[in-house]
Design goal:
two-stranded antiparallel ribbon; binds S-adenosylmethionine; globular; Rossmann fold
């Protein structure tokens, strides 16, 4: 059984089976052939560099983002990320905001541009992604983005908002652990917005969040993705 099958099974698909995922939604930009075992969430990708450029065009924003092999969705803005960025309400104007699993940074950059007086913490395990995110923020003139690994000492204890296209492919247990720990750092009254593909377990993730005592509501459903709004406990 391939890694992909294992992960999808673990994610408890809500309706369609593994073969029915929409073709452009499968987190395709992991390592290329020849880098078996490498994923976009590898800390130090060994994939040969393949610099790319993604135009992030949203109704209110336009960024040019550098990308590379070994980083999630290196050839275009991920469809789920687009759904999130078009559905999510404006972030709080100030305070510490978190993009959990930033990749090359499209969510962090949008947060930072929409809340220029806030500090956006762009967190990822993938060092190549963090370097790209920092370069992309600088290129966009956004001085309020801090790209750091999850254990960075300077990370604040609480965040007034969290936005994430979370790494479903790490597997259900790891995903639950990741979300439990970061959602636990939502400031009182804060909200998290998560985008998850329906075929990769959005509805079961919503039920799990509710079972853990979070208020988790679906605020958008488009192109096979759900946007969940999670309120601090
Ligand atoms: C689905 S991708 C989203 C990337 C980017 N936000 C976007 O929308 O294009 C999930 C990201 O989470 C990162 N990730 C995986 N495990 C993580 C962890 N334990 N902590 C932080 N980030 C992680 C991956 O490296 C990947 O960049």
């Amino acid at each position: 059984m391939s890694n992909e099958q294992v992960t999808r099974d673990q994610a408890e698909p809500d309706q369609a089976g593994p073969g029915q995922a929409e073709p452009d939604q499968g987190e395709p930009d992991q390592a290329g052939p020849g880098q078996a075992g490498q994923h976009y969430f590898t800390a130090s990708p060994v994939a040969a560099h393949r610099p790319g450029l993604v135009h992030v065009v949203l109704p209110d924003l336009h960024f040019e983002c550098a990308t590379d092999a070994g980083v999630f969705s290196a050839s275009r803005l991920d469809a789920g990320t687009r759904v999130l960025l078009e559905a999510v309400p404006l972030p709080p104007a100030r305070g510490d905001l978190l993009d959990l699993g930033t990749g090359y940074g499209p969510i962090a950059l949008a947060m930072a541009a929409r809340a220029p007086e806030a500090t956006v913490w762009a967190v990822d395990v993938n060092e190549r992604a963090l370097d790209l995110c920092a370069a992309n923020a600088a290129g966009a003139g956004l001085g309020n983005v801090r790209c750091v690994p999850p254990g960075a000492a300077e990370l604040p204890g609480q965040f007034t908002a969290i936005w994430s296209n979370p790494p479903i492919r790490v597997g259900k247990q790891a995903l639950h652990g990741l979300l439990a720990s970061w959602l636990g750092r939502l400031a009182p009254g804060g909200q998290a917005h998560l985008v998850v593909q329906r075929n990769l377990g959005a509805d079961s993730l919503q039920r799990w969040l509710q079972s853990q005592g979070w208020t988790a509501a679906r605020i958008a459903s488009r192109s096979g993705y759900r946007v969940l709004e999670v309120t601090s406990r």
